[in-house]
Design brief:
The chain has about 725 residues and is α+β, with helices and mostly antiparallel strands. The chain is about 45% helix and about 10% strand. It is built from 24 helices and 17 strands. The strands form four sheets. Strands 9, 10, 11, 12, 13, 14 and 17 form a seven-stranded antiparallel β-sheet that branches. Helix 21 packs antiparallel against helix 22. The chain is globular, with a radius of gyration of 27 Å.
């Protein structure tokens, strides 16, 4: 695997050869260093090899019914594979609600050995069959549930998700699973996503049939690609920040003299003076072994900020893989003397981190419904792309509140609209080319096929020849821009499990597909439906600068969904419109909507509660003693702040319900604590460095100048 310096050196040495004679065949680069890719995931060639040993093949995994008809066969093959890879333990791996920012790995699991202990012979025997593989039961009493179960009905039931492959790490195999109550209520993030996939497929197939394409037994699927941003900081300085340790962000801290003003960190060369590159190489190496195609890495805008991006894939698999990517990033960073920060806004006044959710839809055999040429050709309908886009535009306009709800992670409080993420106004960017085409379509001025234009750039040089670029530029300010065969939901937070994000996207689009299909079934013309829909929802299309305050006001005046408060956005989950939507699409029941609203509000409140208590400790144990020792600084204001925080915390704890508590927590976080932060930062400014006991931004944010890698005994580049 070419993800470590040792592997790179090996490849460099093995690739040296004498130039062949002109008559010899071309010598291709060797893929041997990558031979371990995917060996730790039970799919493709790996699954086929082991299933053939048991008289079957990997083809049986393509049909979920194997869990009923061939579960023992698959279990036997999985056991052989696991033992050959040094594993002896299994777990059903599931995704409890409200895990971001607090739960390591954001998943739940109970690890069991794949062995039995013979009481007669005192021998150890393998014990792993189809029943062990396909389902499990555990105590669900201590997971967030929002009232879906009580302690006297505490069972949590696990069933394998056949859309996401089993994988192996260390001595354990992980079985991706849905997690539900005794009565089938979703206690997890995965189950609603799977239901939304079913809704999207059902109604997507209906619409495609009306457009001229019958895909038979195939599904319409949603593919996503997730761009993961994060920070790496020196671990010794991390241990000097209780707020980073307890909450994942700095709740106080004076800006360093240098930030991102010069844009010098963005896509700069990785520095060999810090351990960041070696850590990222090892992260990629671990991910590749798990079949996670973590292809891209680079520096991001803020100091110490980085990004990984994989190839796209099926949404359930990509969500599972992203959760493991985040866990691997955190764990590998430790081995390199670093701490990984996944939170959306760990530092003030520099960019925070996101997880851009690139969302597309297509058929299982590769017809991309958001690719104009491909969908028009497959349907034999020149207006197919226009019809599909009209449905999506309507979905965004009607359900922008749900899209805002889906990104209401606590960390996004500080990130949305702060020049690294779009504001909390849900519009969509299509670009002038598509907008012009759809405008003519909706106004009846033409129904021809949309053919994306290309633009030629001529730099006026001999050495760089003219080259083509897309007709449209990128719009980083839009929350939901079209990017050529996909939409990019740019406002998603870096620490989030994106299951709810994609559940919402699938569901709101499925509803529009269903509405179009129902109206055609009732005798209406599909093109007339699409034109009417575009005219009704045209206001949500915006190709301008979403950061411009004047433009934000224009969008607000248009009546586009704008919910500045994440707490209020969460509350929309139980509006009549949204409950009806989820019930109609069979994605969430009314009770499941209500439970998720309470869980998300409790998660927000719990996050703020931890931050406020941490600030109290930092004031009492660090900031106030430092000010007293120095004899300078706003001592009385700092001492008063402790009482203010304690009173606010007590008021939150006394709130009558989860919603009210979250509202109070938001005021504490975004008003009271920000005011107290200013006092703390003023103290840091005047207290001598030798008396300030907390790590500063200068010590946390500049790996290149504050750390050094130990030189390797063998140089990276051989002479």
């Amino acid at each position: 695997m070419l993800a470590t310096t040792a592997a790179a050196r090996s490849l460099l040495r093995s690739s040296r050869f004498t130039a062949p004679a002109a008559t010899t065949a071309r010598t291709f680069a060797s893929l041997e260093p990558y031979s371990d890719y995917g060996k730790s995931v039970f799919t493709g060639r790996v699954a086929d090899e082991y299933l053939k040993k048991h008289g079957s093949s990997g083809d049986i995994l393509k049909d979920p019914s194997w869990t009923k008809s061939h579960s023992d066969t698959v279990a036997a093959a999985v056991l052989d594979w696991a033992v050959d890879r040094g594993a002896n333990t299994y777990c059903h791996w599931f995704q409890p609600m409200a895990a971001s920012g607090v739960r390591h790995g954001q998943t739940g699991q109970v690890q069991n050995m794949m062995m039995a202990f013979n009481r007669t012979t005192n021998d150890i025997e393998f014990d792993f069959d189809g029943k062990n593989l396909t389902k499990g039961e555990t105590d669900g009493s201590s997971f967030p549930n929002g009232g879906l179960r009580d302690t006297h009905t505490a069972g949590g039931y696990l069933a394998i998700d056949t859309s996401s492959p089993i994988f192996l790490r260390g001595d354990t195999i992980f079985i991706p699973s849905a997690f539900v109550s005794y009565y089938g209520a979703a206690l997890d993030e995965k189950t609603p996503l799977l239901r939304s996939n079913a809704a999207l497929s059902k109604h997507g197939k209906r619409l495609l049939a009306h457009l001229g394409l019958d895909i038979g037994d195939q599904d319409v699927i949603s593919n996503i690609g997730l761009e993961q941003e994060f920070f790496l900081v020196p671990r010794d300085q991390y241990y000097r920040r209780p707020d980073l340790q307890m909450t994942g962000r700095t709740i106080i801290g004076r800006d360093a003299p240098r930030g991102q003003e010069m844009c010098d960190h963005y896509m700069a060369p990785p520095s060999l003076a810090s351990p960041a590159l070696a850590a990222m190489q090892e992260m990629q190496d671990e991910c590749w072994r798990l079949g996670i195609p973590l292809k891209t890495r680079h520096r991001e805008v803020a100091p110490n900020q980085y990004e990984f991006a994989p190839l796209f894939g099926l949404n359930t698999t990509q969500v599972d893989q992203n959760l493991m990517v985040m866990q691997i990033i955190e764990e590998v960073a430790i081995r390199h003397g670093l701490a990984a920060l996944m939170q959306e806004k760990p530092f003030n006044d520099v960019n925070g981190s996101g997880k851009h959710n690139n969302w597309s839809i297509g058929t299982e055999d590769g017809v991309m419904l958001l690719h104009p040429a491909k969908v028009n050709a497959a349907t034999g309908n020149d207006s197919a792309f226009a019809v599909i886009m009209s449905a999506i535009v309507a979905a965004v306009n009607e359900h922008g509140d749900l899209m805002r709800m889906a990104i209401a992670s606590p960390g996004n409080d500080f990130r949305l609209g702060a020049c690294e993420a779009p504001p909390a106004i849900v519009s969509t960017y299509l670009g002038e080319d598509i907008t012009f085409y759809l405008s003519h379509f909706k106004d009846g001025k033409g129904e021809g096929e949309y053919i994306p234009k290309l633009k030629t750039l001529d730099l006026g040089t001999h050495e760089v020849l003219p080259f083509e670029v897309p007709a449209e530029d990128r719009n980083r300010t839009s929350p939901f821009p079209y990017g050529g065969a996909r939409f990019e939901f740019r406002a998603v937070g870096s620490s989030q499990n994106v299951s709810m994000v994609n559940t919402v996207l699938n569901t709101i689009v499925a509803e529009k597909f269903a509405e179009f299909a129902d109206r055609v079934d009732a005798g209406e013309d599909l093109h007339d439906i699409a034109r009417e829909t575009l005219n009704e929802h045209w206001k949500v299309i915006f190709n301008g600068n979403n950061y411009d305050e004047a433009m934000q006001q224009e969008l607000t005046d248009r009546g586009i969904w704008r919910i500045d408060s994440g707490v209020e956005a969460i509350a929309t989950l139980t509006s009549e419109k949204n409950v009806n939507l989820f019930q109609k699409m069979k994605v969430l029941t009314k009770e499941e909507c209500e439970s998720r609203k309470d869980v998300l509000h409790d998660h927000y409140t719990g996050t703020v509660d931890m931050e406020a208590k941490c600030l109290v400790d930092m004031l009492n144990q660090h900031i106030i003693p430092s000010v007293k020792a120095a004899g300078v600084g706003p001592l009385s204001d700092l001492e008063a702040a402790v009482g203010t925080l304690k009173a606010a915390i007590a008021e939150i704890h006394a709130a009558e319900d989860s919603y009210k508590a979250a509202q109070l927590a938001r005021v504490l976080r975004l008003e009271t604590m920000i005011d107290i932060r200013a006092v703390c930062d003023a103290a840091e400014e005047v207290v001598p460095a030798n008396l300030w006991t907390l790590a500063t931004y200068k010590e946390l944010m500049f790996l290149d100048s504050h750390t050094a890698s130990t030189p390797e005994t063998e140089p990276f580049f051989d002479e």
